[in-house]
């Protein structure tokens, strides 16, 4: 092979699909800009098994950069490179210590926790069905409490776009503080993303159009009365767990929770 090859390893949530989408978009843009030019080729591993076998050929554990660090390679820097990209899903992690990514490939998705808040008026009428759905989706309940939300806490649960609209902000805060909410801490592999996917968009009408089985499509009636709040990221899930369950959880202390001091 006459040209150099760039070998990269990426990590992230749903990494295979995410990387495939990025590569497809990259190739489409390059073809539009230079339809007659010789374009670099990109090849990616499609399974954890293939990723592991190929990563061993090119890297040692000392070569990996772990934790929150990432590198961005500008496109023009590698104008004529042929790149070989490896990617794998390793679950959400915000740890900064040295990690063995080879070990993660062997162990698979981590068991994580996330927080589901069932808004006033919803849990008292539909709790049995919601718990049944959680069981079907392989969630384990490791924390539960009734809570009357204070205005400051209710404000922290709202999306940024709601906070920019004074009328919407008042409507949301008034509703969230109008009665008792039920807060659940849930555990399973890839828990944060799984719950976000099950809840669907904040607007129940949009959720209904996308998939009537989405939980906000089933239990929500408006953007204010949309049934649920769910942690949107692992970082937010850790914050939510510390906020709502400072006394601890009823699950066994795993390494992830110990490192996050939950």
UniProtKB/TrEMBL annotation:
PROSITE patterns associated with the record: NDPK_LIKE
Keywords per UniProt: Kinase, Transferase
Name of a matching Pfam family: NDK
Transferase keyword on record: yes
Start and end residues of each Nucleoside diphosphate kinase-like domain: 111-251
SMART domains: NDK (SM00562)
Record InterPro entries: NDK-like_dom (IPR034907), NDK-like_dom_sf (IPR036850), TXND_domain-containing (IPR051766)
Keyword Transmembrane: no
GO molecular function annotations of the record: kinase activity
Protein family: Belongs to the NDK family.
Name of this chain's protein: NDK7 kinase
